[in-house]
Amino acid sequence: MNNKSNVCKIINWIFGVAFIVIGVLNLFLVHPVPGIFYLLLSFLYFSPANTFLKKRFGFSIPIVVRIILGLAILWGTLAVGDLAEMFGL
Q1: Are the beta carbons of 67 and 11 closer than 8 angstroms?
Q2: What is the DSSP string of 26-89?
Q3: Which of 17, 37, 67, 70 has its CA 20 to 30 A from that of 7?
Q4: What pLDDT sits at residue 26?
Q5: Are the C-beta atoms of residues 61 and 44 closer than 8 Å to each other?
Q6: How far apart are CA 34 and CA 30, in angstroms?
């Protein structure tokens, strides 16, 4: 169980840091609105935010949903988004 928990934490940190980087890039290079969206979204992937959701609202977002959401948003950003056009991806 501890190994699964560590893998989930690593995945959450990877997505969280990726969305922070994408958010900052969008904030300065593209438009502030998607940049702010990605920065706010990145906090869902860090453990304190998940704990806050669990305490405050009584639920937490399952890891599978966070992974699917993260992959879909990464695909949308890096495949067809404005950042992809700027960097020629």
Answers
A1: yes
A2: IIIII-HHHHHHHHHHHGGGSHHHHHHHHHHHS----HHHHHHHHHHHHHHHHHHSHHHHHHT-
A3: 37
A4: 84
A5: yes
A6: 8
Q: What is the pLDDT along the chain (89 residues), one digit of tens a residue?
A: 577 778 888 888 888 898 898 889 888 888 888 888 888 888 888 878 888 888 988 888 888 888 888 888 888 777 766 666 776 65
What is the rounded distance in angstroms from the CA atom of residue 32 to the CA atom of residue 29? 9
Residue type at position 85: E
Q: Domain map of the chain by residue range?
A: 2-87
Q: What is the pLDDT of residue 89?
A: 57
For the chain, the first-to-last Cα distance in angstroms comes to 39
- 15: tokens are 């997505």
Going from the C-alpha of 86 to that of each of 23, 32, 39, 81, 89, the distances in angstroms are 15, 16, 20, 9, 8
